[in-house]
Design goal:
It is built from nine helices and seven strands; from the N terminus they run E-H-E-H-E-H-E-H-E-H-E-H-H-H-H-E. By secondary structure, the protein is α/β, with parallel strands linked by helices. The longest helix has 26 residues.
């Protein structure tokens, strides 16, 4: 399995859960060496292999290098989890061109390129069974459903990601490559804290204020945990998730229905 943005938050939780379920995991990350190494150690303690792939997903050559590493080490690929994201949390009138370019490169361009690289590896027969196929799961977000201050660019990119997922699902279904996306709500993670602090100039609220405001709006009355999302992703990657195809599954404690 490849997990992008795998050193922290949802990516870390997903990498660890996939390892618990028996997968060897390639942990992609951009700069958090110590965090990525810690994830790799946890995976190896479970008796699975962990490879680290430091790469900026804005760079096509670095993306291709991840898959070349998989090709060299394993010869095939079962699972791709497209979790990494980046954005500038600004109102639309304050955006710069490079904010748009980077956000769309990592959420959209990278997904397309990774699918192009992943599918040939997924179609390689497995040594033990001869089986072919695989799973692709992309991580979207609840900002595609409801307004979140400062999230216009990321939400637009993630909405495009959801569209690519639906089209990929249809185009790849006959190849036994199943494609879905998950749509987390407010998750207790480093990235959510970063959003709250970076958008404070717009919202006037830091992380603690955001939490206090949102929890009463969530029917389940709690923030989501990275493990909540990881459990859904790993289910979609399992045999039990085989008939779920081309869906964007919201997992937000009910936040977006109220």
């Amino acid at each position: 399995a490849i997990v992008t943005g795998g050193s922290r938050g949802i990516g870390r939780a997903t990498a660890l859960q996939l390892a618990r379920d028996g997968a060897n995991v390639v942990v992609n990350y951009r700069r958090e060496d110590e965090q990525a190494q810690a994830v790799a150690r946890e995976i190896e303690q479970m008796g699975r292999r962990a490879l680290l792939a430091r790469a900026d997903l804005e760079n096509e050559d670095e993306i291709r290098a991840i898959f070349e590493q998989v090709r060299s080490e394993f010869g095939f690929l079962d699972i791709l989890v497209a979790n990494a994201a980046a954005s500038a949390f600004r109102q639309i009138l304050d955006l710069k061109s490079y904010n748009l370019d980077r956000t769309f490169a990592i959420s959209l361009h990278a997904l397309v390129l990774m699918a192009q690289e992943a599918v040939p590896l997924m179609l390689q027969p497995r040594p033990s069974t001869g089986r072919t196929g695989g799973r692709i799961v992309a991580v979207s977000g609840f900002d595609t459903i409801r307004f979140v201050a400062g999230h216009a660019t990321l939400a637009a990119a993630k909405a495009g990601l959801e569209t690519y997922v639906r089209y990929l699902a249809v185009e790849l279904a006959d190849l036994n490559v199943n494609v879905n996306s998950v749509c987390p709500g407010l998750i207790e993670s480093d990235s959510a804290r970063t959003w709250a602090e970076r958008s404070k100039a717009i919202t006037g609220e830091g992380w603690e204020e955001q939490v206090a405001k949102h929890i009463p709006q969530i029917p389940r009355r709690r923030l989501g945990q990275p493990e909540d999302i990881a459990n859904l992703i790993t289910f979609l990657c399992s045999d039990e998730g085989d008939y779920i195809c081309g869906q964007n599954i919201v997992i937000d404690g009910g936040l977006t229905i109220v």
